[in-house]
Specification:
globular; binds iron/sulfur cluster; 335 residues; binds S-adenosylmethionine; alpha/beta
Length: 335
C-alpha cells in the first residue's frame, strides 16, 4: 500500500490544482499586463508529463484535481489530457475532475468535458455589461462567454460563477449577478482582489473591495444565513433565504482555514507550491525528466515537498513586498 500524503501538521493532501498553461485569450486587468511575455513552449510540461505528474499525485492520495491556468481550454489538445484523466475517475481513484475557465471556449468543449467525466466547472465572470466586460478582460467578448455558459449547462455541467470584487467596477452588479445566477441555478462566489505584480494597469478598474463590505451590500437586499461547510480552502458560504442560493466569499490570503488546508498547486512547468501565500516551492520537473519510466524519484520529491508545507501563511506577510504585492502572477500558479 502506498502511504498517503500527510503534511507535518497531519493534514492529508487530497486536492491538487494544476495550471496547464500560462497563456490566455483574455488579458484581465487584475491578472495580466496587456503585453505579456509567456514561457517558451519547451518549458511547459507536455501533456504526457502532465499525465505522469497527476497520476503520481493520484496514486499518492489526491482525490480532487482542478485544472486551471492561464486559460486551460486554450492549451492545444487539452481534451486529450482530460480524456486521459477520466481513467482515474473510472477506477474510483479520483473523485472529482474539474476546471476553472474564463468560459470563452466552453461552447466548443462543454460536451467533451462532460464526456471525460467533468461534472462541475467554475467560470470566471465579473460583469454582465458588455462594455465593462470588454474593459476588464481587455480581449474578451461577453456574448461568447454567455454562449459558453449555455453550452455548459446544456451539456449537463453544473456551473459556479466566480466574480472578482472590484470597487467602482462591479459594486453595482451584486444584485444583477445574484439574480442572473438564481435564474440559472448557478452558485456564485466572490473573490477579493489580490494585488499582483506590475500589470501596467493605470485605469481605475481593480480597486480593492473587501468581502466584509460586499457582504454588507448583499445583506441590504437578502437575508444571509452562514453555512458551516468548509472545503478546506479560503471560502466562506452563506445561503440567501429569499432565493435558496449559496454565495461564497473568498479572501485568497485569509488564513482562517489554514488548519484544514488540503491542497497544493502545481504550475505549468512543474513547480509545486505548497501554499498560495508563500513563495516556497519545489521544482518537480527534474525528477520527472531525468527519470523517464521511473516514478520513484518523483514520488520522493513530492513527499519531500509535502513535508515542507507550512502551517499557514499568517506570519508571512514580511515575505511579500512592502506594498502587499505577491510577486507571482495568478496565471502562474493558477487561481
Ligand atoms: N483563466 C481561468 C479563469 O479566468 O477562470 C483560470 C485561471 S484564473 C488565474 C483563476 C481565477 O483567478 C479567476 O477566477 C480570476 O478571476 C482569479 N484571479 C486572477 N487574478 C486575480 C487577482 N489579482 N486577485 C484575485 N483573483 C484573481
Ligand atoms: Fe486569463 Fe483567467 Fe487571468 Fe483573466 S483571470 S487573464 S481569463 S488567466
Amino acid at each position: 500500500m502506498t502511504q498517503p500524503l500527510v503534511d507535518p501538521f497531519q493534514r492529508a493532501i487530497t486536492y491538487l490544482r494544476v495550471s496547464v498553461t500560462d497563456r490566455c485569450d483574455f488579458r484581465c486587468v487584475y491578472c495580466m499586463a496587456e503585453n505579456m511575455t509567456f514561457l517558451p513552449k519547451k518549458e511547459l510540461l507536455t501533456l504526457e508529463e502532465l499525465d505522469r505528474m497527476c497520476s503520481t499525485f493520484i496514486r499518492l492520495g489526491v482525490r480532487k484535481l482542478r485544472i486551471t491556468g492561464g486559460e486551460p481550454l486554450v492549451r492545444r489538445d487539452i481534451m486529450t489530457f482530460f480524456r486521459a484523466m477520466s481513467r482515474h475517475l473510472d477506477s474510483g481513484a479520483l473523485r472529482e475532475l474539474t476546471l476553472t475557465t474564463n468560459g470563452s471556449q466552453l461552447e466548443r468543449f462543454a460536451a467533451d468535458l462532460y464526456a471525460a467525466g467533468v461534472r462541475r466547472v467554475n467560470v470566471s465572470l465579473d460583469t454582465l455589461d458588455e462594455e465593462k466586460f470588454a474593459r476588464v478582460t481587455r480581449w474578451g467578448r461577453l456574448p461568447q462567454v454567455l454562449r459558453g455558459l449555455d453550452a455548459a449547462q446544456a451539456a449537463g455541467l453544473k456551473v459556479k460563477l466566480n466574480a472578482v470584487a472590484l470597487k467602482g467596477f462591479n459594486e453595482d452588479e451584486v444584485e444583477t449577478l445574484t439574480r442572473f445566477c438564481a435564474t440559472r441555478g448557478m452558485d456564485l462566489t466572490w473573490i477579493e482582489v489580490m494585488p499582483m505584480g506590475d500589470l501596467g494597469n493605470e485605469d481605475r478598474v481593480g480597486q480593492y473591495w473587501s468581502m466584509k463590505d460586499l457582504r454588507a451590500r448583499l445583506a441590504e437586499s437578502y437575508t444571509l444565513t452562514d453555512l458551516p461547510e468548509s472545503t478546506g480552502g479560503p471560502a466562506r458560504y452563506v445561503r440567501l433565504e429569499e432565493t435558496g442560493q449559496k454565495i461564497g466569499f473568498i479572501t485568497p490570503l485569509s488564513h482562517n482555514f489554514c488548519e484544514s488546508c488540503n491542497r497544493v498547486r502545481m504550475t505549468c512547468t512543474g513547480e509545486l507550491y505548497m501554499c498560495l501565500g508563500q513563495e516556497d516551492m519545489m521544482d518537480l520537473r527534474p525528477a520527472l525528466r531525468n527519470h523517464p519510466g521511473n516514478d520513484g524519484p518523483l514520488e520522493q520529491d513530492i513527499r519531500r515537498a509535502i513535508g515542507l508545507k507550512p502551517e499557514g501563511h499568517d506570519f508571512d506577510y514580511s515575505r511579500q513586498r512592502a506594498d502587499g504585492q505577491v510577486s507571482r502572477h495568478m496565471s502562474h500558479t493558477g487561481g
